[in-house]
Amino acid sequence: MRLRHIGFVFQFFNLIPALTVLENIELPLALAGVEKAERRRMALELLCYFDLESLGERSPESLSGGERQRVAVIRALTNNPEIILADEPASSLDDENSDLLTGLLSEINRERKVAIVISTTNLHEKLPTNRDYFLREGRLHIRSS
């Protein structure tokens, strides 16, 4: 279910250091049985779409935190999920990279029609959401605008 319908963005990137950025993005496609040439094409297409093709052959360890998180978001998109679950995606980013990430998630939601669920402990964080909910004392509440 997760491999085919859900993309996941981890709080601390979870990119595999022994793989290049391109190989990290290809990984979910490889697990889904997509042939090497096709998964390479798809991964390159995603990197180009988000104007990050220059990162493809780099090691994740050579990237900034913001670049790593954007690559993690792109990896979450590889199998065209219906929903992306993002666990504290901006918690380790500075304000500039947090804004870039927020813009990226908004673009994905708007242009690719992917539902995005973001968990955060920062109630004041600027989120790219249509609706905000929060848990308090075990109860779900809707945040009013």
Could you describe the 3D structure shown?
The structure is a single chain. Helices cover 41% and strands 15% of the residues. With 145 residues, the protein is α/β, with parallel strands linked by helices. It has one domain: Rossmann fold, CATH 3.40.50. The strands form two sheets. It has a three-stranded parallel beta sheet with strand order 1-2-3. It is globular. The termini are far apart. The mean pLDDT is 87.
CATH C-level: Alpha Beta
The total beta strand count reads: 5
Largest sheet: 3 strands, parallel
In N-to-C order, the SSE pattern is: HEHHHEHEEE
Overview in brief:
With 145 residues, the chain is α/β, with parallel strands linked by helices.
